[in-house]
Amino acid sequence: MIYFDNVSKVYNEYSTALREITLEIAQGEFVSIVGHSGAGKSTLLKLLLAEETPTEGQVYFHSVNIHQIPPRNLMEYRRKIGMVFQDFRLLPHKTAYENIAFAMEAAGRSDEEIAEDVPYVLDLVDLADKMWHFPHELSGGEKQRVAIARALVNQPEILVADEPTGNLDPVNTHEVARILMRVNDLGTTVLLTTHNPSVVEMIGRRVVTMDRGRIVRDSPQEARQTIAAAS
Predict the structure, then answer these.
(1) CA 142 → CA 150, 176, 191, 193, distances in Å?
(2) What residue spans define the domains of the chain?
(3) What gap in Å lies between CA 101 and CA 34, rounded to an integer?
(4) Interval 96-127: pLDDT, tens
(5) pTM, full prediction
């Protein structure tokens, strides 16, 4: 589904963000990408979103070279990827329902589709009872769940969650991780970046570790379970 083929990203002679990255993510996988600040996680996501171009190598989505997509078709491609950020990015003067509906309107969806799909995704993230609440009336975890619902409502093939629990307490971190696993269980590919080892441990699925622009470890779920059982 996603394939980074020997990808490097060099900004200048003093800054190399990625070094010879080869990474394949299958449809329906849940992959956590971990590493310290500066490891290259953000650059990897920017390449996937075609916000940056590789210095060397190619990035493929369903066998299509992302960086050969004509500019007029980039928006269509990016709609296949739902994004969730650490800082939520909700519109403060719109309710939870309206924040999600706005994303559907931008994608050209009909009023009938909005009326049907917004309550569905709010129920999926356990916020049906907060539909008409404004962001300032929600906790941090609830805001992030609205953001996840917004990212999902246009039915993307991939959900990219970039440090989604970075601003949350342990209880809300656990809840957001649980929601992401539920989304994955329903068939959506999930790509998570995180600094939080407890999130990775709770999810218990494939983990890719980056350091100084390289992949230094790629631990599938089965290997992690075997290690845990032996310890």
Answers:
(1) 12, 9, 20, 20
(2) 88-155
(3) 32
(4) 999 999 999 999 999 999 999 999 999 999 99
(5) 0.90
